[in-house]
Design a protein that fits this description.
By secondary structure, the protein is mainly alpha-helical. It has helices spanning 2-37, 42-63, 67-96, 100-105, 108-111, 115-139, 143-159, 166-185, 198-217, 226-234. It has ten helices and no strands. It is globular. The chain starts with a helix and ends with a helix.
Length: 235
Amino acid sequence: MNTKTAQIKNTLVNILSKYALPLLLGAVVMNIIFKTYLVDNVRLYTFGYVVYECLLFALFEWLKPKKVLRGLVYTALMVAVLFLGFQLLRAGFEHSGKSFINWFYVNRQEIGQIDEYFYFLFVGLGFFIISVLYYFTIVRYRSFGTMLVVLFPFFIYGKRADSMDTLDITIMLTVFIALMVHSRLVSDESKHDLVINGSYVAASAVFVTLVGALAMLMPTSSKTSYLEKTATSLM
């Protein structure tokens, strides 16, 4: 019985170590994006997105060893997402009379909430982010890919002249750093020296929590940096 319990525990730890951080990063990023487009039900849609992530990750893992089939299925999924996206864009314009670009860039208080456009972001942008996170964390780790996902909220909030909550930024960057450190540790060059167990997970959680707490305690400057001014002018 003890052996079976230990096997189940090790299996759960391995699953969490492989999928938890990519899924968490995707959920945090989309949660921040949802907050600038939704008035309420942000948590409900975030939970729905986590389910969306888990289903696609499970599908991608099942297709991973099937070289020919995975290409065909992913292409079919992408076509289906594009078709559904175009239908949502058309319905949103017919319903509101406002273009997606205007809704995407203009502050929510000025243009209002358009459900069809939001669902387009949920399905379309969500599918893209899940695909990027899966490929660049599970298949082949590349920090640039995960960094691209983290930049989406900054780009959207910057274009809409909205301000991101400090806590949201701290959580997102903390998860990103944790994912980057963990992925480096389990890379091919070092994984033979690494034992992933409960102690590893606990130590990683403490490290990530301390990093996030220190980031929250650091005072923020009221001055606008040269980089921020340049980014604003480019937008």
